Amino acid sequence: MNQQNPATDRVMGGSSVGQIEAAAREEALVLMREMENKPFHVQHVARLALELFDPLAVLHGLGAQERLWLEAAAYLHDIGHQFGVTGEGHHKESARMIRERHWTNFTPREVEVIAQVARYHRKAIPELSHEEFRALDDASRLAVQRLGALLRLADSLDRSHQQLVKSARVEIRPNQLVFHLEAGGIILREIKAAQSKGDLAVAVFQRDLVFMVGDDVLCPPTVATGF
Q1: Parallel, antiparallel, or unpaired: how do β-strands 208-213 and 165-172 relate?
Q2: What is the pTM of this model?
Q3: What is the pLDDT along the chain (227 residues), one digit of tens a residue?
């Protein structure tokens, strides 16, 4: 796996980091446009994921490079729906498709992290018993865990695919993450999904999860039990 520093490579190659990031984002969007039949959903999930990423930086310790990986994984997490009527295994198909794409602006290491973040947006959380996760270096494993936790939550918050959760503001408390949601309708499906798929966030951030609209707590908090 390529262990070079992508940012250094990009500057030395004569292009600014910002220019290459814009090109990489567009490269991910091209694949999304080719394969995604619900673009409004995945673009909304990407926006929500970044809304979660930014205020939680003090906990996850990741930077602009990893933020771009999360954005790309959010755009591409559902492209595997093209293979299979039920979509039961679409998360793994999405990862496969990301890996098999010829990428110009992401390194092989970045591609593998993006693929695994997309793979872990649903179902099982990352485990060392999973061969592909075990093969990652330590820094990449941490990135997959932390970014995967955010993508699981963001995807949950658009469970209905109707963009009912308009925005999410995160309040960090000593033992809780409180998600203050702006809702444009009834979001019971979204909260139920977030309670279920918040398991990785609970483990990663070691805090209970609380979801609120206005002054109302929407359901009992998801309790931290350890990773």
Answers
A1: unpaired
A2: 0.89
A3: 444 444 444 444 557 888 989 999 999 999 999 999 999 999 999 999 999 999 999 999 999 999 999 999 999 999 998 775 555 689 999 999 999 999 999 999 999 999 999 999 999 999 999 999 999 999 999 999 999 999 999 999 999 999 999 999 999 999 999 999 999 999 999 999 999 999 999 999 999 999 999 999 987 566 666 55
What gap in Å lies between CA 159 and CA 192, rounded to an integer? 9
**For residue 62, what are its two tokens?**
């990741």
Beta strands in 79-191 (DSSP E): 165-172, 176-183
Distance CA 191, CA 208 (A): 14
> What's at 57, amino acid-wise?
A
Half-sphere exposure of 117 (CA within 13 A, CB side): 32
